[in-house]
């Protein structure tokens, strides 16, 4: 079973956990990714801050089931969700949001023209190479575009590890992932050709707004 198989089952409602090589395991907040009436006030505040400044075409990288892209679409903002999961893309489309099943590092429409690029819910860690994904976000942005990136909590540092997804019905393969504390934002973004405009912590979630340097 692949990690995508387990992830798709989680989106369909099955319990799911992440395990690292040391054996530590924690439950994935799948309901949080879905969004909706069950979210807490803190969750709503974080989503509002992640999306409130987006007033032009926005690409949501690793959109999952399309929670954030749907918020933008309801406000009349043009948004595109991109995810490698067929279940995530289908769920995003059911919300009325355009979505593509693509590798984030492959060809994407609008390269160099997006006003905003979102990397939320830990997606800075995709592929275990945060520098690469920040450079990818930069390439997608228009010259005056802004990347809105969620970092890990202060003190996390830079952690690159192999993890796997586990569910009652099966266990996925090991794959690389990264976590980056907000204290690394300045150094990491500079190496990616970006600069930090500002940061905020909302409901315990550090967020940075980045522009091309």
Short description:
This protein has helices at residues 3-11, 30-34, 41-51, 67-74, 86-94, 130-140, 185-191; strands spanning 17-20, 25-27, 58-61, 79-83, 99-101, 114-119, 141-150, 158-167, 170-171, 175-180, 194-202, 205-212. The protein is an alpha/beta fold.
What secondary-structure arrangement, pairings included, does this model have?
Elements: H1 3-11, E1 17-20, E2 25-27, H2 30-34, H3 41-51, E3 58-61, H4 67-74, E4 79-83, H5 86-94, E5 99-101, E6 114-119, H6 130-140, E7 141-150, E8 158-167, E9 170-171, E10 175-180, H7 185-191, E11 194-202, E12 205-212
Parallel strand pairs: 3-4, 3-6, 4-5, 6-7
Antiparallel strand pairs: 1-2, 1-8, 7-12, 8-9, 8-10, 11-12
């Amino acid at each position: 079973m692949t990690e995508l198989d387990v992830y798709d089952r989680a989106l369909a409602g099955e319990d799911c956990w992440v395990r690292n090589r040391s054996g530590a395991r924690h439950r994935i907040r799948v309901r949080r990714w879905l969004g909706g009436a069950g979210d807490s006030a803190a969750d709503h505040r974080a989503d509002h801050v992640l999306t409130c400044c987006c007033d032009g075409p926005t690409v949501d990288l690793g959109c999952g089931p399309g929670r954030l892209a749907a918020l933008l679409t309801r406000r009349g903002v043009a948004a595109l969700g991109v995810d490698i999961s067929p279940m995530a893309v289908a769920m995003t489309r059911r919300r009325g949001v355009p979505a593509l099943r693509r590798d984030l590092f492959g060809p994407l429409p609008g390269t160099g023209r997006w006003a905003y690029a979102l990397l939320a819910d830990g997606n800075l860690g995709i592929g275990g190479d945060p520098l690469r994904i920040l450079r990818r976000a930069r390439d997608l942005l228009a010259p005056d575009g802004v990347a809105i990136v969620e970092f890990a909590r202060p003190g996390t540092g830079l952690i690159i590890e192999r993890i796997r997804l586990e569910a009652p019905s099966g266990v996925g393969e090991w794959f690389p992932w990264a976590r980056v504390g907000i204290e690394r934002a300045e150094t990491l973004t500079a190496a990616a050709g970006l600069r930090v405009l500002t940061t905020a912590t909302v409901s315990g979630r550090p967020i940075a707004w980045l522009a091309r340097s």
